[in-house]
Amino acid sequence: FWNYVHDGEAKVAKERIEAVDPEKNLITFRVIEGDLMKEYKSFLITIQVTPKHGGPGSIVHWHLEYEKISDEVAHPETLLQFCVEVSQEIDEHLLSEEEEVKTTETLETEVEIKASAEKFHHMFAGKPHHVSKATPGNIQSCDLHEGDWGTVGSIVFWNYVHDGEAKVAKERIEAVEPEKNLITFRVIEGDLMKEYKSFLITIQVTPKHGGPGSIVHWHLEYEKISDEVAHPETLLQFCVEVSQEIDEHLLSEEEEVKTTETLETEVEIKASAEKFHHMFAGKPHHVSKASPGNIQGCDLHEGDWGQVGSIVFWKGRQRWQRRGLRRWIQRKT
User: How far is it, in rounded angstroms, from Cα 147 to Cα 172?
Assistant: First the structure.
């Protein structure tokens, strides 16, 4: 639905996209409601852009296809001129954006870590609210303000210490590419915005070739508000320290996992797999009816039955263990 001014009058147009061909830089709109439908039975607008041969720039081709409701209706020549003016102003806007891009600067660094690329990436994409546990001296918290963790468009809010001062940053997730272990944050509010017009932080982690471990690549892209503002080199060092402490945290978690042990057994039953599974997943509060001597109850404390993250509370006694112990003692005596 477009709002526009044509021939000095405010007008509207409701259009349906009829065709899109990215390879040809082509798009077609069909007008279905609005001011044009007062004079035309049908109206299609096709815009195709082709690169200019032998030099920079492009050619924008506008194609208007229409059927007038009567011979008294004029051809839409002034609308064609309107298209020319729109093209020229869009061109100026795009060139000004390119000029803005030229003023941005970058800083990069790489940090070698022992943790896997996937685990390090997940700390920022899946659970950035846990980063403060890994590096509490640098980052105190990360709160979710909008959306979901690790989702493009979501807003997160950081509390951190940089250059010995407590600071904040409100950031929007601009890009997430799990297959590349890449995430990009755009700072939209906070202390950095006092000195920079824009600030993007990209973190990409790649497995190390020929051995364990990974390489964390930090890419800072920024535009200073003036030449007096320093390049964020101390922030780059901050990123290095954060990476190293997250690495230590992930490795300590792996060590904890290594100390866990397991016991297993198998029991052959006559019931179906689905029904037995459902006793624990769908109605664990019924297990006490089946095995009252061992389990006296199962109560739901949080969530729903069979849902990940829900909390259940079991009441029972390990009668079979005491029996087993007594029998072993009897045999020994």
Answer: 10
